[in-house]
Amino acid sequence: MRGALSLLLALSLAGAALGQEPPPQPEPAPEAEPAPEPEPAPEPEPAPEPEPAPQPEPAPPAPAEPSEPAKPTVALVPLRFAPETLRRVAGQTQLLMQRFSMTALNNKLLTRLVQAKRFTLLEREQVDAIERELGLAGQGLADATKALKPGQVRTARYLVTGEISAFDLSLQRDRVPHTAQTREVLRAFVVVDLRVISTQTSEILGAHAVKVRWRKPAPATRDSLPTELVDDLQRDLCDRLYVKTLDVLAPARVVQVEGQQAYLDRGRGEGFAVGDVLEVVTKGKEIRSPEGELLGTAAPVVAKVKVVSLQARLATLEVLSGKPVVGALCRRVKGPAAEPKKRGPEGW
Predict the structure, then answer these.
(1) Predicted confidence (pLDDT) per residue in 186-234, tens digit
(2) Which residues contact 246 (CB under 8 A, 6 or more apart)?
C-alpha cells in the first residue's frame, strides 16, 4: 500500500516537473555603445592671398619693317683684253693701252656695282677661287663660258664677265666751229663684249656689245696722255656696263601706281633720263616655232608713261595713256638717251 502511494507521489512530482517551464534566463545586458570620437577641430581657413597689382598692358608691338628682297649674288670675273685686240694695236692706240690699266677698270666696275646697292658682290678672294676652279686664268671669253657647268659654282648665282674686243684711238683734225681754224682731236672707240651667266644652268642670260665713242681735245704732247682722259673713258665704260647688267638681272618695273602717276625702280644713271617715253608691258603667251622651240614671249603694251623726275633709285612717271600695272616691265620707245655724267676738267 505504501509502495503504491510512493509510486503515485513520484509520478505526480515527475509530471509537475515536466509541465513546469524553466525559469526565464536574465537577458544579457546590452553592450555599451562606444563613445563618439570627438570631431576634429576645423582647420583655420587660409588667409586670402592679396590680389596682384594690375600689370600695365604691354605696348602693342611695333609694326615689322618690310624686309628687302634678297639681292642677287654676283661674282665679277675680271674683264680682259681679247687676244686679237692686243695683237692689232699700234701707234697712239698702243700708247693709250699702256695707260689703260685693266686692274683699275675692274676696280671701278666693282665699285659701281657695289654703290648701286642692288647686288651682293663676292669678295676678290672668292672670285679668285672661282677662276681657279673653272680654270679661267688667261682664258678668253668663249673658253670661260664653256668652262662653267650647271651648279658648279655655289657661292654666286650669276657671273658677270667680258672682254674688250675693239680698242682704237686716233688723232684727227676738226674744224673749229664758226672759224676757219682747225684743231687736233683725239677720237676713241672701245667695245666690251659683256656676258651675264647663270651658275645654276650655265645659260648666258645676257650678251651685249657695250660701245663707247667720244672725242676729246688732243693732249699737248703725243707721247703722254692726261690721267683724266683714261679715267673718263673707264668710268664711261663702267656706267654703261652697269646699266646693261642691271637690265639683265633686274629689269625696270613699275613699283607703284597712284592715279595718273606711277613709279619705276630706276634712278639717276640707271638707263633712263627725264623726258624718256616708256612702254609698260606685261608678260603674254609664249611664241614657239613649229618644232616647239621657244622664240619669244608676246608683250602686250598696257600703258605709255613719261619720266618726269629721277631720284637716286626711283623714277617718277606721268601716265600718258592706258593703265600701268604694278610689276609690269618698262622699255624706252623714244626720248633722249641717258648720257653718262660729264667727268674731268673743262673740255674733257
Answers:
(1) 888 999 999 999 988 888 999 999 999 988 887 766 556 678 888 888 9
(2) 116, 118, 266, 270, 271
* DSSP run (H or E) holding 296: strand 294-297
Task: Name the grid cell of 131.
Answer: 677662276
CA distance 265 to 317: 11
Is 93 a residue whose pLDDT tops 50? yes
Domains and CATH numbers, the chain: 70-175+183-250 (3.40.50.10610), 252-336 (2.40.10.410)
Convert the pLDDT of each residue in 38-65 to its tens digit: 666 666 666 666 666 666 666 655 555 5
What's the chain's average pLDDT?
A: 79
Contact 114, 121 (CB under 8 A): yes
Torsion angle in degrees (nearest 10) through CA of 276, 280, 286, 287: -50
- Helices 91-99 and 227-249 cross at an angle (nearest 10°) of 70
* Alpha-carbon distance values, 170 to 210, 237, 330, 346 (Å): 20, 18, 38, 21
Spatial distance between the Cα atoms of 232 and 220, rounded to a whole number of angstroms = 18
Q: How far apart are CA 38 and CA 225, in angstroms?
A: 120
**How confident is the model at residue 306, as a pLDDT?**
96
158, 188 contact by CB (below 8 A): no
C-alpha cell at 100: 689703260
Structure-block grid coordinates of residue 127? 672670285
CB 76 within 8 A of CB 106: yes
Closest CA to 118 of 298, 312, 256: 312
